[in-house]
Design brief:
Layout lengths: L18 E2 L5 E2 L2 H11 L4 H4 L1 H8 L8 H11 L9 E6 L12 E13 L9 E11 L5 E12 L33 H6 L13 E3 L4 E2 L3 H7 L19 H15 L5 E9 L9 E13 L5 E12 L7 E12 L1
Helix pairs in contact: 4-7
């Protein structure tokens, strides 16, 4: 009897134009949002208050938490990054449409660039694969269309693939982060806020969020979002890493503690995982306002920067793990 390996590709198995679309389409449900929120600590009012969400968006169903949506999109792209070693960048991540609970999302992932890394004596051979990730709903409306770059090992350590694409040309900048919410009505949101949160937010303001969040239920979050990357599940070598979306989700929770009036996140300008995170680490962050400009329906677009550190135990030194730059909608 023959035996086959059920696994994803290695770097030298890939070619430009390869498409991966085998992840199951997934319906956004209240249950999934509740489990996701229990793991990352959902605090966005719009995601928690269903009647308010319907009044703001005009949809029959409440809006889905944005972090659940991007976690699912990335997770649905992982059949190609089953053997991932690291993620290098995200580009152009902006909501084209913010879906509601009840919508069903599916994702197509295409290889758009490949570059083999120079060999190093201290590590196994690897290469960089640039991916275009397109997520649509049940009516084929685009929800997300962005790029990420992953590092994969080679199956044949002696292979010279000749792949040397300029990955600096991959992706594009976000042109209009507010386009997805142009029809939203923010007055009901403003009216729902206590007077203390009807405030100006100015560039240069910086908060240190006091009190950390422990990273727990890491494999459960990966399973919930269909992320099958081995490094988030398999602890055989004692090096299982937390899914990057877990760190980002906790960073968002802490950012909303600094800015409780935040409506939602619209786009990312950049997201660098600057260090590894493991289950049981405690994350702390600072949040800085880089810029504020007018947004739709009297709202404001705030360019924010969250810098996150981790410590593994009491008395341990803080180490940098995330530098996330993003645009949020304020009322």
């Amino acid at each position: 009897m023959s035996e086959l390996a059920a696994e994803g590709p290695y770097f030298d198995d890939l070619s430009p134009g390869d498409v991966f679309d085998t992840a199951p389409p997934t319906t956004l449900t209240e249950g999934a949002a509740a489990v996701h929120g229990a793991i990352v600590g959902e605090r966005l009012r719009l995601a928690l208050d269903a009647p308010l969400g319907r009044r703001v968006t005009g949809d029959d169903a409440p809006p889905a938490p944005p972090s659940l949506v991007w976690d699912l999109a990335v997770g649905q792209s992982t059949p190609v990054t089953h053997h991932v070693r690291a993620n290098l960048f995200y580009r152009g991540l902006a909501f084209r449409r913010l879906p509601s609970l009840g919508d069903t999302l599916r994702t197509r992932t295409e290889v758009v660039g490949l570059r083999q890394n120079s060999p190093r004596p201290d590590r196994a051979p690897t290469g960089l694969v640039a991916l275009r990730i397109t997520t649509v709903d049940q009516d084929d409306r685009t929800v997300l269309d962005f790029w990420r770059c992953a590092m994969l090992p080679l199956r044949d350590g002696s292979a010279r693939t000749g792949h040397d694409d300029d990955l600096g040309r991959v992706g594009r900048d976000v042109e209009d982060p507010a386009a997805s919410v142009a029809a939203w009505r923010l007055e009901p949101f403003r009216a729902s806020l206590p007077p203390s949160l009807r405030r100006d937010v100015t560039p240069g303001t910086r908060w240190r969020v006091v009190g950390g969040d422990v990273v727990s239920s890491a494999p459960e979050l990966a399973r919930l979002t269909h992320n099958i990357a081995r490094t988030h599940h398999d602890d055989e070598a004692g090096t299982r890493l937390v899914y990057g979306g877990h760190t980002i989700g906790l960073a968002l929770t802490q950012a909303v503690r600094a800015l409780p009036e935040m409506v939602t996140v619209l786009a990312w300008q950049g997201c660098d995982h600057t260090g590894p995170v493991r289950e049981g680490d405690t994350l702390e962050s600072t949040v800085e306002v880089a810029g504020v400009r007018p947004g739709p329906d009297g709202g404001r677009l705030a360019d924010l920067r969250s810098r996150v550190t981790a410590r593994s135990g009491p008395g341990d030194e803080h180490r940098d793990v995330l530098d996330w730059r993003y645009t949020a909608l304020l009322p």
